[in-house]
Design goal:
single chain, about 375 residues, alpha+beta, Nonspecific Lipid-transfer Protein, Chain A, Jelly Rolls, seven-stranded antiparallel beta sheet, seven-stranded mixed beta sheet
């Protein structure tokens, strides 16, 4: 494998995902290369004196990542991939790899980092607009809800639902926080700091690497930081933890995207946004509050996208203090407020806007489902 050629090919479409800067790869003491992504891609051997981000990993693991047999996030969690410098820029690496696999070229579709685009209409918007406004989210016990009823009554229409007592067979749910620490030992995750609320979806957020066990052990201590407390949000569930959770039986296992884990103290906040897949959100420890809004309120909420084609979408409207002068249409939006208790599972359909806040020290696991309603 000629690393310079591989890196040149890998980063050819990096600007399509908004990645610009100097990526340095260290495969060993004497094997270092850096890639500068700008108007063009330049690859050079040796160390760069001012790289934006440095990625250290074994050459064999790197080959596995390119071949699709090894996962970037899993290697990071296990400590086999180390990151220095701008962690936010490094978080774009999975998108860069996916773009390379799709054969995406750089120009003319290259976009500026963290650029916002008008959010396009989705199928979920049209389905939502045709239905009677939902005034509350129903709560059903797991034992009183069959898979068949769930798939017939809630999935096609994209209707949110809370399923209670849903995690009783999860080992992670049935152990204390102290007992769980042994399963988090030797694992690392990415934490958010500073104004991560105001910089939603931005690679400029203050991301840092942290031991999962140490972060959990620190949850009840004051962070000493201004703004919201540090949040270990949207990390892939490491392989070692998969046996401690259970995939919900409401969709075929093959349709689930790799689950994500969210850990933080009281006060962590993810502002109003929406995802591009159906979501089953499991509350393992503590409580979380959600503010929901139906998909067809896209324009009223001042929705913007991270991509011209749509995808991750944030909102200009703050549901706690809507600016009706700028967004008068927000007066017509019904905001639904719910609280998830430990053991609850929330079905959050594709397109539903949601703001999430930790009411107490919290651990959650969510499962995005790629079943094909589309957007």
């Amino acid at each position: 494998m000629i690393l310079s050629e591989v890196l040149s090919s890998l980063f050819a479409g990096a600007r399509v995902v908004g990645a610009q800067g100097i990526f340095q790869f260290v495969f060993g003491p004497e094997k270092c290369l850096w890639v500068e992504v700008g108007e063009r891609v330049e690859v050079r051997a040796g160390r760069h004196p001012a790289a934006d981000v440095t990625i250290e990993l074994d050459e064999e693991d790197f080959a596995g990542v390119l071949a699709g047999t090894r996962d970037v996030e899993a290697l990071f969690a296990d400590g086999r991939l180390r990151i220095g410098g701008r962690m936010g820029l490094a978080t774009l690496l999975p998108q860069i790899i996916n773009a390379a696999r799709r054969g995406v070229a750089a120009a003319p579709q290259a976009r500026q980092p963290n650029q916002r685009y008008p959010a396009p209409e989705r199928i979920a918007d049209r389905i939502s607009a045709e239905q009677t406004a939902l005034l509350e989210v129903q709560r059903r016990p797991r034992d009183g809800l069959s898979v068949e009823e769930f798939q017939a009554r809630y999935v096609p229409q994209g209707t949110p639902l809370i399923i209670s007592d849903a995690l009783r067979d999860w080992p992670l749910f049935n152990m204390s926080r102290e007992e769980s620490l042994v399963h988090f030992a030797e694992l690392q995750g990415i934490t958010r700091h500073g104004d991560y609320v105001g910089k939603t979806f931005s690679s400029e957020r203050d991301f840092r690497s942290a031991s999962m066990a140490d972060f959990i052990a620190s949850l009840d201590r004051e962070s000493g930081e201004d703004g919201p407390p540090p949040y270990m949000g949207n990390n892939a569930v490491p392989e070692q933890l998969l046996e401690q959770i259970r995939f919900p039986g409401y969709f075929d296992r093959s349709l689930y995207i790799k689950p994500r884990i969210w850990i933080g103290p009281r006060g962590t906040l993810t502002p109003l946004h929406r995802d591009d897949s159906d979501n089953l959100f499991a509350q393992v420890w503590g409580r979380k509050s959600f503010i929901l809004a139906a998909p067809h309120h896209r324009e009223a909420l001042g929705t913007w996208s991270t991509s011209p084609e749509g995808g991750l979408e944030g909102c200009e409207v703050n549901p706690d203090v809507p600016d009706y002068d700028r967004f008068p249409g927000a007066r017509e939006v019904t905001f639904l407020r719910i609280v998830l208790e430990a053991g609850d599972l929330l079905f959050l359909p594709d397109g539903w806007f949601h703001q999430v806040e930790s009411v107490s020290t919290s651990l959650s696991v969510n499962f995005w489902v790629n079943w094909g309603r589309g957007w």
